[in-house]
Amino acid sequence: MYLLNSTKILEYQHQTYGPYLHIKNFSDKQLKQTAYYFRLGPMYKLRNTNNWIELSIKKPVIEFKPGDYFIVQSFESFRLSEKVLGILGISTDVVSLGLRLINAPFIDPCYDRALQFGLHNPLNETICINFLDVLG
Predict the structure, then answer these.
(1) What are 6-14's contacts with CB under 8 Å, separation 24+?
(2) What is the pLDDT of residues 30-44, one digit of tens each?
């Protein structure tokens, strides 16, 4: 096992469905030395509902009132081979806003879709995040 670095991740992105990892909606700006920073996608819903809401040009912001808990999706979709295990971490951007990102610590081998997370506002103030803000 080895850690994929930015050179290898970029190499796989330029192949049609690279052998180990492919990221749909990939952006060079999100690539760091040994990490890829994924962004807030267009779909979200309030916890315990089935009604997905889509962010748009007219409404590119999710407003978290105190205590709100939303399920959100990443803008990027990830396809991992059976040989790759993704490790997740939270972005300091999200932490500095005061939001809690609730997620599993790993992306399983053979995963092939957008990521889903919980985002919770534990503060007594409203917090806003924008479409394409970095989550982790």
Answers:
(1) 6/31, 6/32, 6/33, 6/34, 9/36
(2) 999 888 999 999 999
